[in-house]
Write a structure and sequence with these properties.
By secondary structure, the chain is α/β, with parallel strands linked by helices. The chain is globular.
Length: about 400
């Protein structure tokens, strides 16, 4: 009897020949102290006995934790590893580099401290209970890479249970940036959102959130497709999220496929990982807008889309108009934390999109409907807009 040899494991030196591995060696984060401990007096203040006075005061008035700990300015980046980037269900250990990266972006782009937390559970009840029990240590919860439809229930239940912002970035970060880019693309072509008929391919976390924010912003009509075709009222087998979407979208009553719906459409937004034929893009309305956002392979190649569309955006950094969540989530959380908001409202998301679109201003062009993530105006603009809207919505506590 013969047995297959055990697969060989590459050495760390061999892996480090790849610059991505070399950069990740040891992780991308560390914790640093913000006060000195130079002598016994410093130690007595930072730890015992001085710390006891602070603890006692917080025990008597828990709200003081926001002023005398880091809680009010730190975010938990939480994932179960079931829907990571374009990788799918790779588990919590393999998700950690992405969550570290998210925490890195929080710090680099908006000065927000964030802690990556990958959970070894996938049940809705377990996720909700675990995050809720961790929540007293944080000023906000950024849910990340949790697969649909569980992600909707997890976020909804945590929002109901907690008095700090809970934000599923796969949903709302994407939606904010798409709305901002679409506002500018519509402006470039002399139209308003209300003039546009859009088709969204994908009814997962991002597809549903994008559709919802566009509906709230006044899109003319929108049809959403999943792997089985266009979602419409009366279609069998829809879950509760898709049933609600069917009631609010596709007023034209379209049936069939994404490509069927694209005939004469003004906007295509791809969030599905599927492919769309160039011929279908060619059949869209004049001055069409194509956001092919699947990574690393867009639904239609940008060069092909540009032969027919006025504006083309992707999720990739090597083409113009990158729809990148880092344009939204750092500033959204910075603004919410600055005013100690107890939630993030729909108005705050729209305010973030409006501020992001305004950064482009009069410089708008076919290759510039959304700013670069490295534009230093972005995070301050989004932060200010979100904080101001939180005060107007009555959810700010500072």
């Amino acid at each position: 009897m013969t047995t297959s040899p055990e697969p060989s494991t590459p050495s760390l030196d061999a892996l480090d020949a790849d610059p991505a591995f070399a950069l990740h060696r040891g992780g991308k984060l560390e914790v640093r102290s913000s006060v000195p401990v130079r002598d016994a007096d410093d130690l007595a203040l930072a730890y015992t006995p001085g710390v006891a006075r602070v603890c006692t005061a917080i025990a008597e008035n828990p709200a003081l934790a926001a002023d005398y700990t880091w809680v009010s300015r730190v975010v938990a980046v939480v994932s179960d590893g079931t829907a990571v980037l374009g990788l799918g269900d790779i588990g919590p250990a393999a998700a950690m580099p992405v969550m570290e990266g998210k925490a890195l972006l929080f710090k680099e782009f908006a000065g927000v401290d964030a802690v990556p937390i990958c959970l070894d559970c996938t049940g809705v009840e377990e996720l909700v209970e675990t995050v809720a029990r961790l929540a007293p240590s944080f000023g906000g919860i950024n849910l990340e890479d949790i697969s649909a439809p569980r992600c909707f229930e997890v976020e909804d239940r945590l929002r109901e249970r907690l008095d700090i912002p809970v934000f599923h970035d796969d949903q709302h970060g994407t939606a904010i940036v798409v709305l901002a880019a679409l506002q500018n693309a519509a402006r470039l072509t002399g139209r308003s959102l209300g003039d546009l008929r859009a088709v969204v391919a994908g009814a997962g976390a991002s597809g549903v959130a994008v559709s919802r924010i566009l509906l709230n912003a006044g899109i003319g009509d929108i049809a959403v497709a999943d792997s089985k075709g266009l979602i419409h009222e009366g279609r069998a087998g829809l879950n509760s999220v898709k049933s609600a979407l069917a009631a609010d979208t596709n007023r034209a009553g379209l049936r069939g496929t994404t490509e069927d719906a694209l005939a004469g459409a003004d906007v295509f937004i791809g969030l599905s990982g599927s492919t769309v034929a160039e011929q279908a893009i060619a059949g869209m309305a004049a001055d069409s807008i194509v956001f092919a956002l699947s990574n690393p392979t867009p639904e239609v190649h940008p060069d092909a889309a540009r032969r027919h569309a006025r504006v083309v955006a992707t999720g990739r950094s090597d083409f113009p108009n990158q729809i990148n969540n880092v344009l939204a989530f750092p500033g959204v959380f910075r603004g919410a934390l600055d005013v100690r908001a107890h939630t993030i409202t729909e108005n705050m998301k729209v305010a973030a999109a409006d501020a992001l679109a305004a950064v482009v201003g009069d410089a708008v062009s076919a290759d510039y409907v959304i700013p670069s993530p490295f534009d230093q105006r972005v995070a301050p603009a989004v932060t200010a807009a979100v904080a101001d809207q939180a005060r107007r919505d009555g959810v700010a506590r500072a």
